UniProtKB/TrEMBL annotation, chain A:
Compartment list: Chromosome, Centromere; Nucleus
InterPro entries noted in UniProt: CENP-O
Membership in a protein family: Belongs to the CENP-O/MCM21 family.
Top-rank lineage group of the source organism: Eukaryota
CDD domains linked: DRWD-C_CENP-O, DRWD-N_CENP-O
UniProt keyword terms in alphabetical order: Centromere, Chromosome, Coiled coil, Nucleus
Name of the protein: Centromere protein O
Residue ranges of coiled coil: 131-168
PANTHER family named among the record's database cross-references: CENTROMERE PROTEIN O, INNER KINETOCHORE SUBUNIT MAL2
One GO cellular component term: nucleus
């Protein structure tokens, strides 16, 4: 029989049954005493909506003056002492009223003996454990309140700034549309900063819109009969070369000149994507090829800069093949690694192949891991990882 | 060392300028340290040649080794002979997967199939260019090393540059190139010049091209000791726009040093004042040649300084646009009333 059940069963059938009650944690319950000493009168700091009924009242009628001595827990087992008041701060609060041990034992049923004593002890131990928790929990909650107050202040300040920013931004947008002169309402550092921030958000939004429409700079040439498209390339957040295409629109859509290197198949892509009909698809495909090429070229450059111990045996202008020579630290052999980038629209290789005199080396688990590493990460980063693992020098 | 090797070495030594002799020999690396010490580079070329011959005899060098020396020299100084550009057409499916060893094997085997006695040497330069030296023989005679052909090709590009190729041997080389680079045809790119770097940069667009932009970068100020500030102010904008248009047509910064452009005209004579010539039916054939130390630079200057009106004639701006410097111009449309002249391809 669990203690809960015992609590419920204690008392005569006509007495109100004490059940476990869920308690609101907003109690300022740093004083256990307060809860009990009130007895009938509820203490001011006891804000619980459902005040758990004092078991003691139920069972013993009124609070005896001797209850003072029993409020503190003495941490020992039940033994010969009278029942103690314990409040357990959990979701459920078990109120163990002051009950005579005999009464309890009597109420426990026929097998009053070891089992029931053990359960008593268990409850005591449980309640003892929760007491220090009460103190620290209280402190915790207080600290949390402070932190939340600070956060609230911060958020309020941010909201205010944001509102000012919005106002400035809308006035800026209006200014840009009307091209009026800028008027400074207050010449103060704060307002200048706010103006800068407003302009910054404006530019960011513009960039985002530009990115959404495909990100190509297009301007009209030849009095509207042609366009010049700029394709920017970037890798790992660094802008690299920009390529341009001049396209005639009248009488037919065709490319008149460009500065794209000859190994990127511009005309092939134009045919594949039917440039006449779907310019955007063609530009997207071309941009993908160019960015992939720029990425591969940049990887090769970084590899040469960062890993001078790795020898580049072969490369080509399109950066579609890379043959590297690794030196394995402990063994005397070298490993020849071939990276094939047959898909020219990607920065990662499609095939990695190791060649080594020591056949076991290339079949070992370590090098299988290196194989997948080279397939999935850019080559300069993969080599750094391999160096860190000690596979290559 | 046989006679041909000796003659070859003498020829090479004549070609290499005195100051380049030491670095070239060092790069060759076939002389021992002692031998290198014994060469006194302050002596006359003739004396050095004799010394080198003696050393090569000592080392028992063959023609193969001597050709290495020649190749090193030519790669360093490619500007002493005329280069012609060829363009490969109609790529096959696997053109982008051609890699160096495959190309080397294929080229050698194809050329050897076509002509029995041929000596081929292939070397890859640091800038990804593949240099090929070919000495031609025929069914009866050994390869003639005194008249080699040099071929330069960048893999994955459709351009090939060749020197001194007779018309008899051109089809053989073309076939070997086409088969080993996985294209279907090869044609003359109508671009030639002495400076290999110039024609290569022009074809591969390695110079700075200028495109119309919304925000052209501000031009550098001209020197301010011009007399009248007001004139400058008036003319600055015009000058800037002229410069921009000139750069769009020809490029910005350092331009490839093309030295000549040839226009072969096969058009009817048109001049109202000269009735007799205009009445002739057949085309008036003439050749117009522009020559300069740096042709593109001078054309750009013409346009930006206002001597020539901008936008310039498309005939001149076709040079960098199409990457060629030999044009044949014919009348496309029949009849004397037509004023259009189109460069034919």
């Amino acid at each position: 029989m669990s203690w809960n059940e015992e609590a419920q069963n204690v008392g005569a059938p006509d007495e109100p049954v004490l059940s476990t009650v869920s308690v609101d944690l907003r109690w300022d319950a740093d004083d256990r005493h307060g809860r009990l000493e009130g007895g009938d009168e509820r203490q001011g700091n006891w804000k619980a909506p459902h005040a758990p009924v004092c078991h003691q009242e139920l069972l013993c009628g009124s609070l005896t003056p001797s209850r003072q001595s029993v409020v503190e827990s003495d941490g020992h087992g039940g033994g010969q002492q009278d029942g103690k008041y314990h409040i357990v701060y959990n979701r459920e609060v078990l109120l163990v009223g002051r009950v005579h041990r005999d009464r309890l034992l009597a109420a426990a049923g026929e097998d009053s003996g070891v089992l029931s004593l053990l359960s008593l002890l268990e409850v005591q131990a449980r309640s003892r454990r929760t007491q220090p928790q009460q103190q620290s929990r209280v402190k915790e909650l207080k600290a949390k309140i402070e932190a939340l107050k600070v956060q609230k202040q911060q958020l309020e300040a941010e909201i205010e700034t944001h509102q000012n920013l919005q106002k400035l931004r809308s006035s800026l947008d209006k200014q840009c549309a009307d091209e009026e002169d800028v008027e400074m309402e207050e010449v103060s550092e704060n307002s200048q900063l706010l103006r800068l921030m407003a302009r910054h958000t404006q530019l960011k939004d513009l960039l985002h819109a530009h990115h959404l429409i495909g990100g190509y700079d297009v301007i009209k040439t030849r009095q509207g009969k042609g366009v010049c498209v700029s394709l920017a390339t970037a890798y790992e957040g660094v802008y690299l070369d920009t390529y341009n295409l001049e396209i005639d629109l009248k009488p037919t859509v065709k490319i008149s000149r460009h500065n794209i290197p000859p190994f990127i198949p511009v005309n092939g892509l134009a045919e594949e994507n039917d440039m006449q009909v779907n310019m955007r698809a063609f530009l997207d495909a071309l941009s993908q090829h160019l960015n992939a090429f720029a990425g591969r070229k940049q990887q090769l450059k970084l590899l040469k800069e960062q890993h001078k111990s790795v020898e580049v045996m072969e490369s080509n202008v399109l950066c579609s093949i890379l043959v590297l020579m690794f030196k394995v630290p402990r063994a005397k052999t070298a490993v020849l690694c071939t990276l094939d980038y047959t898909d020219h629209s990607r920065c990662l290789p499609t095939r990695v192949h190791f060649e080594c005199e020591d056949k076991q080396l290339s079949d070992s688990d370590q090098w299988k891991k290196n194989h997948s590493l080279l397939m999935e990460t850019p080559v300069h980063k993969a080599l750094t990882a391999m160096k860190n693992m000690g596979d290559i020098v | 060392m046989d006679d041909s090797a000796r003659r070859l070495l003498q020829r090479i030594m004549r070609r290499i300028p005195a100051q380049m002799l030491k670095p070239t020999l060092d790069k060759w690396g076939r002389l021992t340290a002692a031998q290198r010490q014994s060469m006194d580079f302050t002596e006359s070329k003739w004396a050095l040649t004799e010394k080198l011959l003696a050393i090569c005899e000592e080392n028992e060098m063959t023609v193969k080794h001597i050709t290495e020396l020649e190749m090193i020299h030519v790669i360093e100084n490619p500007d002493h002979c005329m280069w012609y550009a060829l363009q490969l057409m109609d790529p096959e499916e696997d053109v982008h997967s051609v890699e160096l060893t495959q190309f080397k094997e294929q080229f050698k085997s194809h050329l050897r199939e076509l002509i029995r006695h041929v000596s081929i040497k292939i070397k890859k330069h640091t800038d990804e260019a593949v240099w090929i030296r070919i000495a031609w023989g025929d069914s009866f005679s050994r390869p003639n090393h005194l008249k080699p052909t040099y071929v330069v090709h960048h893999l994955q590009t459709p351009y090939v540059f060749v020197t001194s190729l007779t018309s008899k041997l051109k089809p053989l080389l073309s076939q070997a190139l086409v088969l080993s680079t996985r294209y279907q045809a090869i044609k003359d790119a109508s671009l030639s010049g002495r400076k290999l770097t110039a024609i290569r940069d022009l074809l591969m667009r390695q110079y700075q091209q200028v495109f119309p932009t919304k925000y052209p970068s501000p031009l550098a100020e001209n020197d301010q000791n011009a007399s009248n500030i007001l004139i400058n102010k008036e003319q600055a904008e015009l000058a800037a726009s002229r410069h921009q248009k000139a750069c769009e047509a020809f490029g910005d910064g350092m331009l490839p040093q093309l030295q000549s452009a040839v226009y072969k005209l096969e058009t009817k004579f048109r001049d109202h004042t000269n009735k007799t010539m205009t009445e002739r039916e057949e085309a008036f054939r003439c050749v117009v040649k522009f020559a300069s130390t740096n042709l593109l630079e001078s054309l750009r200057h013409c346009a930006s300084s206002g001597i020539a009106s901008t936008p310039g004639t498309s005939l001149l701006s076709s040079i960098p646009l199409k990457g060629r410097n030999y044009f044949v111009i014919t009348d496309n449309s029949p009849g004397p009333s037509s004023q259009t002249r189109q460069p034919s391809n």
